[in-house]
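To illustrate the input format used throughout this study, we show a single complete record. The first block contains the structure-token representation of the backbone; no residue identities are included at this stage. The design step must infer an amino acid for every position from geometry alone.
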């Protein structure tokens, strides 16, 4: 006996429409990445003629040579990894410590505490006051200015608190009956159950630090301390300005012609690679984290 198909004609049309839409969106998102990679690997003539689309033409690594021979590039990579890594670890610690009492705390002024956190999400301190605070703390010129300036964003605290609220409070009460304090409950019970949202927030923090351009430009005054985005911006400006002001292409040491578009697209791809590597590992948690963030506190 065959099982009747419960999908109506309208549902089938809707499914087909969704598949087509997802395919179009997938192409729209993938094409720029492939185009950037193709231009960065192509020769100067096809680029200038506008012939490069999905695949490289006349393979040329001159753009990457200009990027990776810059004496500050590897130093800036290390600086960005340090800021993103330390910022992520400290950020998760501070966000967890702030979110736990919002979800499980039972103390006088809890609502005021919640509103204070929300207030910082709606109204920022401003660039100049923040810079003055960092200056008074003697953090200007240090990577710690970048880390402390993004240590516990209010939105991430609200997202984590929303997840904590879904954890049965009976687990916390049982642990406390056995003699556990709040710190033990958070470390041994709450955080292990919150791995999906913690992975999502970790990704958000890393991406925010990795793509931060204005912060390093404001707080760092030593080129050896610059993060990747600032150094890559300098390389792009060099490629578009003084280095190529005489002609549309220059000849590198091995006789290969290099045009500004090669260097610019090589810079874009170099900055994307670490995020492209990290994202697949936390992709399964990302949608869940976004859905949690949509829940009203």
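Output of the design step:
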């Amino acid at each position: 006996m065959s099982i009747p198909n419960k999908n109506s004609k309208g549902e089938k049309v809707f499914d087909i429409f969704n598949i087509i839409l997802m395919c179009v969106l997938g192409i729209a998102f993938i094409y720029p990445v492939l185009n950037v990679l193709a231009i960065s690997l192509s020769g100067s003539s096809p680029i200038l003629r506008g012939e490069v689309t999905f695949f490289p033409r006349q393979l040329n690594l001159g753009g990457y040579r200009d990027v990776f021979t810059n004496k500050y590039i590897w130093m800036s990579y290390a600086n960005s990894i340090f800021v993103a890594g330390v910022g992520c670890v400290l950020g998760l610690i501070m966000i967890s410590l702030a979110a736990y009492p919002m979800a499980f705390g039972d103390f006088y002024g809890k609502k005021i505490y919640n509103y204070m956190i929300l207030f910082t999400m709606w109204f920022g301190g401003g660039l100049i006051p923040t810079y003055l605070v960092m200056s008074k703390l003697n953090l200007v010129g240090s990577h710690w200015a970048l880390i402390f300036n993004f240590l516990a964003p209010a939105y991430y605290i609200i997202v984590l608190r929303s997840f904590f609220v879904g954890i049965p409070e009976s687990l916390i009460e049982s642990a406390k009956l056995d003699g556990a304090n709040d710190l033990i409950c958070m470390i041994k019970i709450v955080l292990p159950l919150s791995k999906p949202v913690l992975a999502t927030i970790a990704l958000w923090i890393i991406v925010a630090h990795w793509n931060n351009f204005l912060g390093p430009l404001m707080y760092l005054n030593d080129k050896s301390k610059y993060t990747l985005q600032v150094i890559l911006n300098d390389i792009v400006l060099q490629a578009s300005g003084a280095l190529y002001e005489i002609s549309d292409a220059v000849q590198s040491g091995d006789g290969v012609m290099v045009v500004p578009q090669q260097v610019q697209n090589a810079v874009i791809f170099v900055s994307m690679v670490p995020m492209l590597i990290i994202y697949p590992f936390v992709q399964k948690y990302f949608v869940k984290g976004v859905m949690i963030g949509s829940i009203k506190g």
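Structural context for interpreting the output: Residues 159 and 294 are 8 Å apart (CA to CA). Residues 61-297 form a domain with the MetI-like fold fold (CATH 1.10.3720.10).
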